[in-house]
Amino acid sequence: MKPLRSLLFVPGNKAAWMEKAPQYGADALILDLEDSVPLADKATARTLVRQAIETLSARRQTLYVRVNALDTDMTGDDLAAIVCDGLHGLLPPKVETVEDVERLDTLLAYFERRAELPLGRIELIPTLETARGIRNAYDIARASPRVASIAGGAGKGGDTNRSLGYVWTKEGMETLFIRSKILLDARAAGIRYPLLASWFDVGDLEGLTADARRNRQLGYTGMLLIHPSHVEPVNRVFTPSAEEVAYYKGLLAAMQEAERQGTAAVTYQGAMVDIAMLKTAQEMLEVAKEVGVRV
Q1: Dihedral angle over CA of 146, 152, 157, 160, nearest 10
Q2: 83 CB-near residues (< 8 Å, 6+ apart)
Q3: Which residue from 77, 8, 17, 69 is spatially nearest to 42, judged by alpha carbons?
Q4: Is domain 6-237 in CATH 3.40.50.2300, yes or no?
Q5: What pTM does this model have?
Q6: Fewest 10 Å CB contacts: which of 19, 116, 184, 218?
Q7: Residue 151: which residues within 8 A CB-CB, separation 6 or more?
Q8: b vs e for 188-213, b when ≥16 Cβ sit within 10 Å of the residue's Cβ?
Q9: Would you write out the chain's pLDDT as a tens digit for each of its 295 residues?
């Protein structure tokens, strides 16, 4: 999986919204068949999402779909409609157990065969929105080779808020453990680019930016977003700055010079750096390239 700084939800029953969504600059779109679509519109939304996948994938847009949760008995109907060549992956909601992932894996294999796609082609990004799901984050992340990332929930008033019962604040101390646990479990499971949904206030872009900075400081690489105005601030926060790129390029040069002199450590900008910092620098510059920064 490549790093995705911003994944923007778009209601699957709004054809015009899906058509214009690429203009907002998100790294990926999440065409939604779940919470933003009324029950009466589910069937129509499946058709519209399939059409959007075919149209937008031809424009090289990275596309995920949030299907309905397994316990709704609608997941199979969703997959029957949307599994096709242009679909990058799924964001299944309210994943709680390894068995949930295994059921999704089996369903996807069936529909991949039916669509004549290579087995394993479609990724999974399980969304952890309940206490049970967050508790099982590590096992969920390792449950299938399809799991490319996991997405935690830590926002105000949503499923995670209800499940855990916290009192939400902008500062986020009440969700620090949630964010930290999901991040730790994801990294321990070998996931390089963990994601978080943690800001649902449409108009407060200053608060969004502060929240994104906290997430990046913890180690997250991107966020799930509910509004187009959130894309630019989040992309900016999760894009390595010119100063960061210059720092890591300089560190690489310093380490290369140290190696020529037969040593594995050197003082760089007042700090001792060694081979571990070299690996960090290489990874940071790789991420910068992936998100379009000139290195």
Answers
A1: 80
A2: 108, 111, 112, 114, 115, 117, 122
A3: 77
A4: no
A5: 0.93
A6: 116
A7: 91, 125, 126, 127, 128, 194, 195, 196, 197, 224
A8: ebebebbbbbbbbeeeebeebbbbbe
A9: 789 999 999 999 999 999 999 999 999 999 999 999 999 999 999 999 999 999 999 999 999 999 999 999 999 999 999 999 999 999 999 999 999 999 999 999 999 999 999 999 999 999 999 999 999 999 999 999 999 999 999 999 999 999 999 999 999 999 999 999 999 999 999 999 999 999 999 999 999 999 999 999 999 999 999 999 999 999 999 999 999 999 999 999 998 888 888 888 889 999 888 888 888 899 999 999 999 898 8
Q: How far is CA 36 from CA 30, 178, 223, in A?
A: 11, 25, 18
